[in-house]
Amino acid sequence: MTAALLVLISVLCIYILYRELSIRRLSDELEEILESCMLGEFNKRMFLPGRDRLSRVINRINNVAEITEQRIKKLEEEKIRWQSLLRGLSDAVLLVDEEDRVEIVNDTFLQEFNLKERDVRERLYSEAIREPVLIELIERARTTGLTQRGNIINEDTDRVFRATVYPVRLNHSTNIMVILRDITERKEVERLKRDFIANVSHELKTPITNIKGYVETLIEELSPECRDSLEFLRVIHKNTQRMERLVLDLIQLSSIESGAIRIEKREIGLKDFLKEVTEEFRKAAEQKGLAMSMSLEDEQEVIRADPLRLKQILSNLIDNAIKFTEKGSVVVGAFREDSLLILFVQDTGIGIPKKYIPRLGERFFRVDPSRSRELGGTGLGLAIVKHLVNAHGWRMEIESREASGTRVSIIVSEDG
After folding, report:
1. Which of these CATH numbers, 3.20.20.70, 3.30.565.10, 1.10.340.30, 3.30.70.1450, describes 266-412?
2. What is the pLDDT of residue 135?
């Protein structure tokens, strides 16, 4: 009996010792696997036969490791595909992480700006990039949460890039994506086209003026009995006037774009200035049955602007408003919003479809070409306004609804 009890105790001790050693071995293996996982290695496994609870836990750990390993492989493959795609892009691409460090940069970006990846990756973008305009666009995109666009000129190569900078949500953080498209050739073509149009316009100005003068003389000298001849001459005169307006607008626009026109700002009292401009168009408005009015929040309001260019801006806007308004009113005014001065011209005209608003201000762009020609428009009025507004350092915004009217606002900078 005693011997049997001793044998039983011995077996029990051996079993306990075995279990202890097994658990310790399993614990060591598990610790080794977990350390490997922490280092990003998920290829190690543990094997424990049986159906007990510990075996099930070990099997689940193996399953988790296997699933994680497969997902990491897929992510690595996806990363390689994206890197290949980025390398093949002709656009320069840069991604800035939430901490303002460069996370991704493609070869095109590095080549265009003569940079090395080791000098850019994981560095603050403000230190890695030497383009102040691009840095400002990134800062504005981060601050506003809105897409920013602008032109970047590489001073070393004289190449021009169109920059699009916008926030991107990745892994619960807000990154900034930068895409630069080389538009050097397009800009050169545009310059050549502008130069050609400017030269042709100057060449046409004198003969058109002469033709107009001869036609006016013939109209004055022909007797009233020559009705057919007078009618033909009036048609010629009308079309000559339209050509003259087009040529003068082209010459003016070319001068503005080339920087030949200087903006000389001085203080202007808005009350008298707006009254003078609106009075010049009152007769044209009344002939169409339109109410012409002025709205000024503060009659003592003063603006710093070039008087001649400001008059051109407002005159073009009022002229457009009257042309494209059949009934209702045209209002010219100014008010302050958050300390910014806003000039506006508002009408109750035909309005503009939303899809066309971004194109307003382009040369020769007309929403309805046939109607615009019928009304004598050149398609250059808003282009001239846009350039003069930019030359002042201001901003133009257009709001419109079809059949309800249009409002053009000029947001004047604080120093204006």
Report:
1. 3.30.565.10
2. 92
- Which tokens go with 19? 């279990």
DSSP secondary structure letters along 58-71: HHHHHHHHHHHHHH
Rounded-to-integer distance, Cα 170 and Cα 97, Å: 9
Pairing, β 173-182 against β 92-96: antiparallel
8 Å CB contact between 196 and 225? no
- Please say whether the beta carbons of 294 and 275 come within 8 A: yes
Structure tokens at 292: 């012409």
Q: 151-178: per-residue pLDDT in tens?
A: 998 888 888 999 999 999 877 788 999 9
- Topology annotation, domain 89-182: Beta-Lactamase (3.30.450)
Let me know: does 394 contact 410? Beta carbons within 8 Å.
yes
Residue from 413, 391, 265, 399 nearest 339 by CA: 413
Answer CATH for 186-257 from 1.10.287, 1.25.10, 1.25.40, 3.40.50: 1.10.287
Q: Which residues, other chains included, contact 323 with Cβ-Cβ below 8 Å and sequence gap of 6+?
A: 375, 376, 377
Using one digit for the tens of pLDDT, what is the confidence trace for 335-372?
Answer: 999 889 999 999 999 999 988 888 888 877 777 765 55
What are the pLDDT digits (tens) for 267-288? 999 999 999 999 999 999 999 9
Which residues share a beta bridge with 329?
A: 291
Q: Which two tokens stand for residue 327?
A: 């009934």
Report the greatest alpha carbon distance in the chain: 153
- H/E run at residue 337: strand 329-337
- DSSP designation for 393: T
Domain boundaries, the chain: 24-83, 89-182, 186-257, 266-412
d(CA 124, CA 101): 4
Position 318 confidence tier, pLDDT thresholds 50, 70, 90:
very high
CA distance 298 to 333: 10
- Amino acid letter for position 37: C
* Cα 340 → chain centroid: 22
CB 286 within 8 A of CB 314: no
E-state strands within 272-311: 291-296, 302-305
pLDDT in tens, 378-406: 778 899 999 999 999 999 999 999 888 99
Work out the pLDDT band at 219, boundaries 50, 70, 90: confident
